[in-house]
Amino acid sequence: MTENQEKQLFKTLETLVTGVNKIQSDVTEVKETLNKHSDILSKHSDILSKHSDILKRLEAKTDAIAEKVMSHEIRFTKVEKKIEDLEGGIH
Question: How far apart are alpha carbons 39 and 18 in whole angstroms?
């Protein structure tokens, strides 16, 4: 191997090592970014779970209110009917 070939080989190896180091650095950066995103997604998942629980409670309360309104509506209708019957009997 000539001296010139040896120099060229070392330059090629140096370029390869530099490239590998850059790739390793990029991989480390991507891993750090993925970890940050994973933490954010985990927090969002917790928030969504809490909001889901709140919505379920609100839905149950809304259903209870609707049932109560319907119950009162039925009672009110019965009272109106009795009043009409009483008024009808008075005339």
Answer: 32
